[in-house]
Design a protein that fits this description.
Blueprint lengths: L2 E6 L3 E7 L4 E8 L6 H14 L9 E6 L2 H15 L4 E2 L21 H13 L4 E6 L2 E7 L5 E8 L1 H11 L19 H28 L4 E5 L15 E2 L3 H12 L6
Helix pairs in contact: 1-2, 3-6
Length: 260
């Protein structure tokens, strides 16, 4: 089995290939809701060739997307170029095996439920999963794997974009750890505000969640942005970049009846 897992956020889309034993390739591209199946196929085919693979070798596909207008093109990519019907998170026949114990379970984002499953498979006990993309989400996952709710805050890049667009004198900057907290020029002021500001956000919200939960919790960081904070805070216990695709792989396995 060669599985193509597609995990699409508002900012980036991850394509990953699993050969039945291991993840053998992963690529990220900017999310563009208007990109067609043909455009995806050309891009993906070139990357597969660089790894000695080809599109026709892929015989399975699972898709998780928070961008509804892109799902049509991703389905067509699988149907037209892989010749397989994809499993799409959110379709009523696809069983996630993840319970959402919130007021309106239908409001639980597909990406957050996939993360809950991926975290529960690897880590015992009660968990907090921090995923930073367009938004920074804090997901509370009970020891039995249920999604208990959480927090949604603006993402790092979104905050930088807002600063640049709303204040004429503030430049567009890259996210990086500044040498000191107190900045001496505009760029270092902004870098400190974003970097240490988000560290403070993480530390403060993790402390409040733990206090409200009242039991020990393990904190898992995932997503490309949150990895920038590794080593800068003790509030995150583990950094796990494969958390989401681990959840997708498990959902693929649990829905084997749909692939028969």
């Amino acid at each position: 089995m060669m599985l193509l897992a597609i995990e699409q956020g508002n900012t980036n889309t991850l394509f990953a290939v699993h050969d039945g034993a291991d993840w053998i390739a992963q690529w990220r591209t900017a999310t563009e809701s208007t990109r067609t199946a043909d455009e995806y196929a050309v891009w993906l085919s070139q990357l597969l060739t660089m790894r000695g693979l080809e599109l026709k070798a892929l015989d399975g596909c699972i898709i998780s997307s928070v961008v509804p207008q892109s799902i049509f093109n991703l389905r067509n990519l699988s149907r037209r170029y892989l010749s397989v019907e994809p499993l799409v998170i959110g379709d009523p026949e696809v069983r996630l095996g993840a319970t959402a114990r919130i007021l309106k379970p239908s409001e639980a984002g597909a990406d957050r439920l996939v993360n809950a499953l991926g975290a529960h498979l690897m880590y015992p006990g009660d968990l907090i999963v921090i995923d930073s993309g367009t938004a920074t989400t804090f997901d509370v996952i009970a020891a039995d794997g249920a999604f208990e709710g959480g927090i949604i805050a603006p993402g790092v890049n979104l905050s930088l974009q807002a600063l640049h667009e709303a204040a004429a004198m503030l430049p567009r900057i890259a996210i990086q750890k500044p040498d000191k907290v107190i900045g001496k020029d505009t760029v270092s002021n902004m870098q400190s505000g974003v970097f240490w500001g988000y560290i403070a956000l993480i530390e403060g919200l993790v402390a409040r969640i733990k206090a409200e939960w009242g039991k020990p919790m393990t904190v898992i960081g995932t997503g490309g942005v949150v990895s920038l904070f590794e080593g800068a805070t003790d509030s995150i216990d583990r950094f796990d970049p494969d958390l989401t695709i681990r959840g997708l792989l498990e959902i693929w396995r649990r829905n084997s009846h749909l692939k028969a």
